[in-house]
Amino acid sequence: MAQVLEDKDVDTALESLDGWSRSGTAISRTIALPTFPGAIALVSAVAEVAEERNHHPDIDIRWRKVTFMCSTHSEGGITQLDLNLARAINDLAAKHG
Ligand SMILES: C[C@H](O)[C@H](O)[C@H]1CNC2=NC(N)=NC(=O)C2=N1
User: Dihedral, CA atoms, 80, 40, 90, 71, nearest 10 degrees?
Assistant: First the structure.
């Protein structure tokens, strides 16, 4: 199972994860889409990837702003699974932006 990462390793990884920052025991990013359906389309695309990986973000949807929060709940912190999911979310956001 993935281990909780050292703070310094998370900080290094965040340098190459555009828009993501530490939020307690998670990393998060808020993305603004052009429309509410566009926000839901991005959420749906992320849901597919999360389901494939069996690693799911917490998601807050407010009109066309979506906040993704990634943490490995079973480990109580940030693991490589979260960094990988954040990168996948950025790739999907680039397609949906
Ligand atoms: C039973 C299932 O494999 C687990 O509950 C998975 C599901 N998705 C998950 N997602 C996240 N972010 N953290 C987990 O610990 C986790 N565990």
Answer: -20
Any residues with Cβ below 6 Å from ligand 1, and which?
54-56, 71-74
From 28, 69, 74, 78, the mutation candidate for ligand 1 (largest count of ligand atoms within 8 A of CB) is 74
Ligand 1 closest atom vs CA 75: 15
Q: What is the pLDDT of residues 16-60, one digit of tens each?
A: 999 999 999 999 999 999 999 999 999 999 999 999 999 999 999
Residue of the CA atom closest to atom 8 of ligand 1: 55
In CATH, the architecture of 7-96 is 2-Layer Sandwich (3.30)
pTM over 0.90: yes
> DSSP secondary-structure letter at 54?
T
Above 0.90 for ipTM, yes or no? yes
Nearest-CA residue for atom 3 of ligand 1 = 54
> Could you tell me whether strands 26-32 and 65-70 are parallel, antiparallel, or unpaired per DSSP bridges?
antiparallel
